[in-house]
Design brief:
Helices cover 43% and strands 18% of the residues. It is α/β, with parallel strands linked by helices and 307 residues long. The protein has 3 domains: 1-65, no CATH class; 69-151 and 258-307, Periplasmic binding protein-like II (D-Maltodextrin-Binding Protein, domain 2), CATH 3.40.190; 157-255, Periplasmic binding protein-like II (D-Maltodextrin-Binding Protein, domain 2), CATH 3.40.190.10. A 5-stranded mixed β-sheet has the order 4-1-5-12-6. Strands 9-8-10-7-11 form a 5-stranded mixed β-sheet, sandwiched between helices. A hairpin with a 5-residue loop joins strand 2 and strand 3 (91-92). It starts with a helix and ends in an 11-residue tail after the last helix.
Length: 307
């Protein structure tokens, strides 16, 4: 246990030293993919170093080898209905219930470790948790950094904006417009890949709630996110009055890959095999479908993409 903590601390120290030696923003950018960050985030060298130092202090207290009888999932609870918090702070959502079902199947106790999405891969690498269950899409880019379980689901992604705006999810339509995306997300990757170079202003946020707030205030023209989250967290609330989905699904296998899976450290075949077996078990037993019906029964569109 102490050995693994030392390894994690050393890994953090190496990253911080590399950033200190980089001496420029462009050099720091080249280090970001190694640490699970995307190059296109707005973090600068000093901010990134501070964030790493804070994370490393947390490792000493919270990152140990997988304790007997426990499975620790990294999660950012800001993606309703997949993972979010109730007013009393309790974690809930489709992914949370799926994780608990996986733990029951494996006779393990689930431990949920909250983490910002844009540093989720780094947290996994330095063993802050054992796996990522937080709506992370399986993409070629991420597969270079971590492994994934079998696919859980493939949620439709949509653009949201004001009624009668006439905007569509296309480079031509969004040229000169401000597009809100979550930092570190596949939506950010998509917008940067297909829209930024054609004149769209891609604005990255730490959370979806911030995107919806800026949409409502007029600081953004559109937002890009999973259809079910837009529906439940924005369009179905007073804040979303006067907003609608714009155009059809936004799709790109090159960016979104095959769907959402559970992120696992490279080479941890034993855990991957356990999680894959548990996912197969809960799908065969019908428990997966029951959980889906619980969270999407009032939103038929939300069931699209669930496997």
């Amino acid at each position: 246990m102490h050995v693994e903590m030392s390894i994690a601390a050393c890994e953090c120290a190496e990253y911080i030293e590399a950033i200190d030696l980089s001496g420029s923003h462009s050099d720091a950018d080249s280090l970001l993919p190694q640490m699970g960050f995307l190059k296109d985030t707005s973090m600068r060298t000093r901010t990134l170093r501070a964030a790493l130092i804070a994370l490393c202090f947390g490792i000493a207290a919270g990152s140990t080898a997988q304790a007997s009888g426990e499975l620790r999932f990294g999660v950012e609870p800001s993606w309703k209905p997949f993972e979010y918090k109730l007013p009393d702070g309790t974690l809930t959502g489709f992914d949370i219930d799926i994780g608990e079902a996986i733990c029951r199947d494996l006779a393990l106790r689930c431990i949920w470790v909250e983490n910002n999405f844009d540093s989720m891969i780094l947290g996994l690498k330095v063993k802050k948790f054992d796996a990522i269950l937080s709506g992370m899409a399986v993409t070629e880019r991420r597969l270079k950094e971590i492994d994934f379980s079998q696919v859980l689901y493939k949620p439709p992604v949509r653009l949201v904006g004001r009624v009668n705006s006439g905007l569509l999810p296309s480079p031509e339509s969004l040229s000169g417009r401000r597009v809100g995306v979550q930092q570190g997300s596949t939506e950010e990757m998509y917008a940067n890949k297909y829209w930024r170079g054609k004149g769209a202003d891609i604005v990255s946020y730490r959370s979806q709630a911030e995107i919806y707030s800026d949409l409502a205030s007029g600081r953004l023209d559109v937002g890009l996110n999973a259809e079910s989250d837009i529906q439940q967290s924005f369009l179905s609330t007073p804040q979303g009055a006067g907003f609608v989905f714009l155009g059809g699904d936004v799709a790109s296998d090159a960016v979104y890959g095959g769907g959402v899976g559970i992120g696992i450290r490279k080479g941890d075949k034993a855990l991957k095999d356990q999680i894959d077996r548990a996912i197969t078990d809960i799908k065969k037993s019908g428990e997966f479908q029951k959980i889906a019906a619980k969270y999407f029964k009032s939103n038929a569109a939300g069931l699209r993409g669930l496997i």
